[in-house]
Description:
Elements: H1 6-18, H2 23-45, H3 76-101
Amino acid sequence: MDELTSVQISEWEAYDRIDPVGTWREDFRMAFLSSLITNLTISVHGKKGAKQTTLMDFMPKWEQTGEVGEVKKQSVEDMKKALLEIAGAQNKKEARKKNEKRPPSQLNTKK
């Protein structure tokens, strides 16, 4: 069981051509579902005559060779700024939760 013969490898390659297994098939399935959901949403909520998507709009293009351009690297300062913005938003959310849990303050009425 530790080794495959060349015949077995050939059989698996032939089977894979007929019914692919692995990441390409997973990408295909996800692209199909994404396209379906997007098209349903467009047909229900979109403008009349809006363009429908195709399955290939959602397929990743792993073999692209530099057509898009060079990937911009994020500086340390950019990363720090993004994380501080996330932390600030989270702190505001937590402060709102605290305020919601407080009992209403009693009115000070003077006689």
